[in-house]
Amino acid sequence: MRALIQRVTEASVTVNDEITGEIGPGLLVLICAMQGDSEAEADKLAAKIAKLRIFEDEAGKMNRSVRDIEGAVLVVSQFTLAADTRSGNRPGFSNAAPPAEGERLYTYFSDRLARVENLPTERGRFGADMKVRLLNDGPVTIWMEV
Length: 146
Hints:
Layout: E1 2-15, E2 18-23, E3 26-32, H1 39-51, E4 55-56, E5 62-64, E6 72-77, H2 99-115, E7 121-123, E8 130-145
Parallel strand pairs: 3-6, 6-7
Antiparallel strand pairs: 1-2, 1-3, 1-8, 4-5
């Protein structure tokens, strides 16, 4: 699985003028299931993200996790993270998991953050045309792949 993680002061996702997920301080996680991914990758990624120390402590060092700051997570599916741009000018997406499997792992991953990692978790809508609004804090943006 691939994820692009952004530290945010706030973020939301809207589908057809309806807000489907909204958080204050925390993490916006853009997520993509890749060919061959399973629950094991989702479990590992969720655990890593929950413990990722990218929030500042009292000394101004990135030493606190989203859990430490009592923040939330907004999870948005984004198959374009699977883009292969090695040749030509049009990216290929054949490395992404098939849609049904991608949706299953997206839901599993989001639920894992909420139920196992005990993080307040909001989400977008898989496969929808989403409008994502965020205020990146830092900016801090981390690429993660398991």
